[in-house]
Amino acid sequence: MMYKKVLYVTTIDITVWSFLLPSLIALRKEGYEVEVACGGGKFFKDIQNEGFKVYFVPFNRKFYHWSNIKALFRILKILRRNQYDILHTHTPVASFISRIAAKIAKVPIIIYTVHGFHFYEHGNELANICFYFLEKLAGRCTDIFITINTDDYRKAKKMFSNNRTFYVKGVGINTQEFMPENINSEKLADLRDELRINNNEEIIGIVAEMNPGKRHIDFLRAANLISRKKNNVKFLIIGTGRLMDYYKNVTKKLSIDKDCIFTGFRRDILELLSLMDIFVFPSAREGLPVSLMEAMSMRKPAVVANIRGNRDLVIDGITGKIVPVKNSQAIADAVLEMLNNPEKRKKMGEEARRRIESEFEEKIVLEQILKIYREC
Question: Across the strands, what pairs with 8?
């Protein structure tokens, strides 16, 4: 029997638009009928314009939010009405709710891509216990696990020994798109003018949503330490989130507000990455960070926290530097070492690009996903 009708589910629509669209397109080319269910709404039309039907489900990113009860009944109704052969879930909240709904609706195959288990090495102990048992519970409603880093792969194999578990290297990066040679020098000059960055200034950057787990606070404290020892350095903070105003106040308290540039949400990530000399990623919890892969594809050496996912990407001393979690001084020291060694920095960037091309290229990852579908 061929299973051909697929529903992709995520908590918010930006996940589909930013990370999962290539998978949807690849599955459609393979002959699958693919539809999407998610919360959010800003990117619905973008996804629909790519030819996919999208259902709104009121997922909330907080597990305990009342709207998730409504989301359970909504996704159950969608599953029963459309008779899908495969449910493929992404992101923790949507995955927990929709897998239970799919089991009730008797969907033949339930696939869960783990974009980082909610229990992790630096997490709150009580929260880790709760999330562990929630995953164990939802695991009973799951046929196939896809993990995107080696730490979670080992955990999944141990936790769900009776299920099929695969390791796929993230969502993949289109290295033909994320290539320094694609950058127009005139456009880059205009971007420098827009952001008020001088040609002689070196740029340290971060791309991440502004929530506590991404640890922007460590980036800003490191920026303070770096600015004391190095002139002509700007700090580029790309992204938005609920802590943006708080972080702007932090830069004022540290007297580095003139050196820090908050861009908000941007679509020109390619050009912004090209501006950077060094990419910093201090996050305390990740699956396999796309922004880090994009920076590496753009030949940027990276300073990253020592967590799962980051360890799969960055080879310490070769493609960048791995530093302890929540350690601003270590970030500052690693950045200063790179700033003072431009040749070494350039070599790290070249090695970073080669690593993404050889193992994390989008075509490689998509073929891994299609192979799982063919087998299962």
Answer: 36, 88
pLDDT digits (tens, 9 = 90+) for 236-266: 999 999 999 999 999 999 999 999 999 999 9
Pair of tokens at residue 251: 């830069």
Who contacts 306 (Cβ-Cβ below 8 Å, separation ≥6)? Answer: 322, 323, 324, 325
For residue 147, what are the CA distances in angstroms to 152, 229, 368? 6, 41, 12
Residue 44 scores a pLDDT above 70: yes
**Residue matched to tokens 């009928």:** 33
SS (H, E, C) 294-348: HHHHCCCCEEEECCCCHHHHCCECCCEEEECCCCHHHHHHHHHHHHCCHHHHHHH
What would you measure as the largest C-alpha separation in the chain, in angstroms?
66
∠ CA 175-177-178, rounded to 5° = 60
Strand (E) or helix (H) holding 49? helix 44-49
Contact 296, 355 (CB under 8 A): yes
Comparing C-alpha atoms, which of 52, 51, 46 is closest to residue 9? 52
The whole-angstrom separation of Cα 206 and Cα 239 is: 8
Q: Are 302 and 279 in contact (CB under 8 A)?
A: yes
DSSP calls for 66-135: THHHHHHHHHHHHHHHHT-SEEEEESHHHHHHHHHHHHHTT-SEEEEEESS-SS-TTS-HHHHHHHHHHH
304 is written with which tokens? Answer: 């990253």
Question: Which residues make Cβ contacts (< 8 Å) with residue 8, sequence separation at least 6?
Answer: 16, 20, 23, 24, 34, 35, 36, 37, 88, 89, 90
Q: Which amino acid is at 282?
A: P
> SS3 for 35?
strand
Query: What are 21's two structure tokens?
Result: 């669209």
User: pLDDT digit string (tens) for 15-40?
Assistant: 999 999 999 999 999 999 999 999 98
pLDDT computed for residue 3 by the predictor: 63
Cα gap 60→50, rounded to integer Å: 25
Give 79's Cβ-side CA count (13 Å radius). Answer: 28
- Cα of 190 vs its chain's centroid, Å: 28
Q: How many C-beta atoms surround the C-beta of residue 29 within 10 A?
A: 10
Tokens of 262: 């908050």
